[in-house]
Amino acid sequence: EAQVTQNPRYLITVTGKKLTVTCSQNMNHEYMSWYRQDPGLGLRQIYYSMNVEVTDKGDVPEGYKVSRKEKRNFPLILESPSPNQTSLYFCASSLGRRTEAFFGQGTRLTVV
Amino acid sequence: KQEVTQIPAALSVPEGENLVLNCSFTDSAIYNLQWFRQDPGKGLTSLLLIQSSQREQTSGRLNASLDKSSGRSTLYIAASQPGDSATYLCAVLSNFGNEKLTFGTGTRLTIIP
Question: Does B90 touch chain A (CB under 8 A)?
Answer without folding.
Answer: no
